[in-house]
């Protein structure tokens, strides 16, 4: 259940991208990140994106697909919870405020099943940053720039890899030197 970016993103400069194509490791992405290595050999990392706003979901999935990650998307917490049971998810990106069950409820349920899965919570409510961090989740304030999202995701995967499996040429060294890429 990947995504193909529709015409609304072509006008914005985002080319149509399918999240379903196999990644063979033969190319490096614009970030210098090669997502294989920490994960099972030959298996692309899978990111579950849960947001009730279709355009936001499609943007996130498009950006991740351009960097080599597979995505599955859910329009609410119940659908996302079902997908997290069916698939081995390497990262959950969820909106805090969603119908049926909230992003916080979803994140807690996913964490109970797979305690080591990282979670990136997105919200426009300033108070949510405290809630997310109190639960050990990463947080991204909405609205966000695509580069901010990708920097967060790359940082999360670098933390998972412990600096050995996932390499980010340049950005890792810049962050170590206290420089933030924007």
So how many helices? 7
Could you name the CATH class?
Alpha Beta
Shape from CA axes?
globular
What fraction strand?
15-25%
Please, what is the CATH homologous superfamily? Response regulator
| Percent helix | 25-40%
Describe this structure in a few short sentences.
It is built from seven helices and seven strands.
What does this 3D model show about the protein?
- Mean pLDDT is 74; it is low at 1-41 and 163-182.
- The two termini are 31 Å apart.
- The chain has one domain (27-176): Rossmann fold, CATH 3.40.50.2300.
- By secondary structure, it is of the alpha/beta class.
- The protein has helices at residues 7-10, 54-66, 77-86, 103-113, 128-134, 146-161, 171-176, and strands at residues 33-34, 46-50, 70-74, 91-95, 119-123, 138-141, 167-168.
- The chain is built from seven helices and seven strands.
- The chain is 37% helix and 15% strand.
Features:
182 residues, Rossmann fold, 7 helices, globular, disordered C terminus
Any chance you could write out the topology, listing elements then pairs?
Blueprint: H1 7-10, E1 33-34, E2 46-50, H2 54-66, E3 70-74, H3 77-86, E4 91-95, H4 103-113, E5 119-123, H5 128-134, E6 138-141, H6 146-161, E7 167-168, H7 171-176
Parallel strand pairs: 2-3, 2-4, 4-5, 5-6
Antiparallel strand pairs: 1-7
